[in-house]
Amino acid sequence: MEETRAVDISAVNEKIAEQSAFIDLLIREMDKAIIGQRYMVERLLIGLLGQGHILLEGVPGLAKTLAIKSLAQAVKGSFSRIQFTPDLLPADVIGTLIYNIKENDFSIKRGPIFANFILADEINRAPAKVQSALLEAMQERQVTIGDETFGLDEPFLVMATQNPVEQEGTYPLPEAQVDRFMLKTIIDYPKMTEEQLIIRQNLKGEKPAINPVVSLKQILTAQEAVRGVYMDEKIEKYILDIVFATRYPEKYGLSEIKPLISFGASPRGSINMATAAKCYAFIKRRGYVIPEDVRAIVHDVLRHRIGITYEAEAENVTSEELINRIVNQVEVP
């Protein structure tokens, strides 16, 4: 029985290695325009392959827009950028009905949400009703304009950005809405050598052309292939232990952090952690998930799903630190 199982895993591994061959090609193409920021590029691919969405936090000028635009060009997908502002209306995002005087009838004008890749720039600058219109489209993958419901293009990836510095005139996303993002990724400044290359490239006036190296059909096939990545029961248990430790830390010998957590990760956290771990294994050209895959994506999946108490804020304890303590405590299979 064990032997058959081992043969099955090696067959899956071979199949996934073949189906994920385009990943290196895609990353190489994006590297033409994006210097450094490999972490952000990999998270974008996890979101794309896992049919999830990403919330990116980082100061302005870290190539967030360039990254998703380059990805759209490399897979020959349509791209829309929506700049969120306090005066934005839901109709500016999803579209609206327009009255046509000549035909004495209403026609539908589709909004920028009808694209494969959406950049929701500074999502916390728009009022709640605009945020909820976007988040509904993300969750349902469809929008309703008037009496008609329209399905959104596949693949469909929303990358929303937040500026961690300026909080004036912003509308923070409620926990229930933040939870709809598969990953929350925090990006940092490039290294000095990388920034030197960025300066040189810009001073030369070089704008490398991103060529389509992967088709949308290949991406849809890869999304299906990710489901076939093998995940052992021990890895499932490991994921559940991490998530349950955010809810009941005392059961995992972490009684000291219980007063610091106001609420733990939801079941959506468990689902997204399993999906993201499979996507990470796929990106690494592997047909099975190992504990290191879970540890690689755990912060991105959980940092926006753990509520911290006033006590934690007073002690300057972040959700990041709490995740580290949980991951270090939970037994690795």
N-C termini distance = 21 Å
Strand adjacency order, main sheet: 2-5-8-1-9
Structural domains: how many: 2
Mean pLDDT across all residues, rounded? 87
Determine the CATH superfamily of the largest domain: P-loop containing nucleotide triphosphate hydrolases
Number of helices: 14
The ordered string of helix (H) and strand (E) elements is HHHEHEHEEEHEEEHEHHHEHHEHH
Write the layout of secondary structure elements.
Blueprint: H1 2-19, H2 22-31, H3 38-49, E1 54-57, H4 64-74, E2 79-83, H5 90-94, E3 95-100, E4 105-110, E5 117-121, H6 128-140, E6 142-145, E7 148-151, E8 157-162, H7 175-178, E9 183-186, H8 192-203, H9 216-227, H10 233-247, E10 261-263, H11 267-283, H12 291-302, E11 307-308, H13 310-314, H14 319-329
Parallel strand pairs: 1-8, 1-9, 2-5, 5-8
Antiparallel strand pairs: 3-4, 6-7, 10-11
Textual characterization of the structure:
The protein has 333 residues and is α/β, with parallel strands linked by helices. It has two domains: 2-219, P-loop containing nucleotide triphosphate hydrolases (Rossmann fold, 3-Layer(aba) Sandwich); 230-329, Orthogonal Bundle (Helicase, Ruva Protein, domain 3), CATH 1.10.8.80. Helices cover 47% and strands 15% of the residues. The protein is built from 14 helices and eleven strands. The strands form four sheets. Strands 2-5-8-1-9 form a five-stranded parallel beta sheet. It has a two-stranded antiparallel ribbon with strand order 3-4. α11 (267-283) crosses α12 (291-302) and α12 (291-302) runs antiparallel to α14 (319-329). The longest helix is centred in the N-terminal third of the chain and has 18 residues, at 2-19. The two termini are 21 Å apart. Residues 1-7 have low confidence and may be disordered.
